[in-house]
Design brief:
4-stranded parallel β-sheet; about 15% strand; 15 strands; alpha/beta; 22 helices; 2 domains; Rossmann fold; about 45% helix; globular; about 550 residues
Amino acid sequence: MTKLSPLQIERLKYQPKLPKSLQNGVNSLELVEGSATQSVRDQEQIKALFANTYGKPTVTFKTTSSSSSSEVRNVGVILSGGQAPGGHNVIAGLYDSLKNANPANKLYGFLGGPSGIIEGKYVEFDDEFINDYRNTGGFDIIGSGRTKLETEEQFQKSLAVCKSLGISAVVIIGGDDSNTNAALLAEWFVKNNAGIQVIGCPKTIDGDLKNEQIEISFGFDTATKTYAELIGNIQRDANSAKKYWHFIKIMGRSASHVALEAALQTQPNITLISEEVEAKKMSLSSIIDYMTDIIVKRSENGKNFGIAVVPEGLIEFIPEMGSMISNLNDIMASLEKDSSFVNASANEKFSIVESKLSSENAKVYASLPALIKTQLLADRDPHGNVQVSKIETEKLLIEMISERLSQLKAEGKYSGKFSAQSHFFGYEGRCAFPSNFDADYCYSLGYNAFALINFGLTGYLSSVRNLTQPADEWLAGGIPLTMMMNMEKRHGEMKPVIQKALVKLDGPVFKKLQDNRQDWAMNDRYLFPGAIQYFGPSSVCDITTITLQLERGKTLASV
């Protein structure tokens, strides 16, 4: 066995907490149905596409005094999409739940993500295997992948693999795209009388898979605490050296929940929120003006240092940049097949691209630093789009602010010093040891997933809520996956997808930033969260995110 660190040895001993309703196992549960549901938008289209699984009620579980027996079930589990802290505990909770219900039950893990169920690559879990991964980060227990489950051929192959293993239920652990796949697979299985249930579990560090029933996606708590520790460390360094501006890009392409939460935990001088930029139609120039103004004013107060937090996906939310990138995605499909373009020099490529873009988009592209122009032409993602995470937005901002400050200095309007450092925090947070909150929450999600299976449900997402209360008071249940869906254009076609939950500019979380933004800009109110604590008082070890507390109406005396 691989040698373990002292922390891992201790974490393997940790017994995650469960909601009271689940503590006696799934055989002592009673299912309570709520009201029928409908999709968040496009109800008629979603209903037509999910004729067999649409409109189901929400469900909750409560303990009953009687105990029922559980028939033998074989279950398959898939880790899908990007890693998030706590995935191993979802599987551990699922395993413990099904073994508690009936020791003859079996759990199979499909290897490498959804492709595993298509190709029949799997492992059967046992106690020894599971016990090596409890309360640890990563998805390395079975690996993950981004294969989409959406075609007739894939469904047929998945069915054949499940039948060969006697599997009657599949649990898909993933984000919005992965759980959209779960909904499609569930519908297909019912439509074809396959006798196989599908249950989803809400995962993504981005925090954009949530609603009233799904209060938080797992991994968000641990990842944001990890990033906040790093930002706090940098703030302490900046406040010590007093000579650098640190520009920190942080995970979150489609939504800025991670940047917003990290900012509330650390209180940096500048925080950009993509949704605000889009709503206010802020140009790149106006963003530079905003940031430069703060830098100049701090310099006038003798502070030539500071911290700026920037969400990963910012560049796509700037209207003229979003338009240019969309135009660029369209023309690159053909240019990448043109050998004269592929073999051209960097400057020649810039000229060719500018000649192909619309006049307004060409102006935007031409105004960018060469580094960013090059990154915009780099390898596309599988959908042919710019890989936004590879665009060094933090360096773009630094370069353009430097130019603006040079102009102001030449005009006698700025006399300070500007030295900048750039950072990107992404992978650092995806596989961290899960916080106590994520360890408990994920274990509960997995345990609860088998309860949903045990009651014969399919097309449901495991839901554990009331999460700002002690774990004993958490409420276990499930919601239909179709409840979170709408129609969106993908690859030129309208397709059903789970709607992403973006930062609400009229919500309490953004308002907390908005109310403090001016003060934090000029005064150094830095907070230093420190490392995630696993042992000690509950007030330190079990506390959850500021985002969740504010969204659930908790009062924050410390913020």
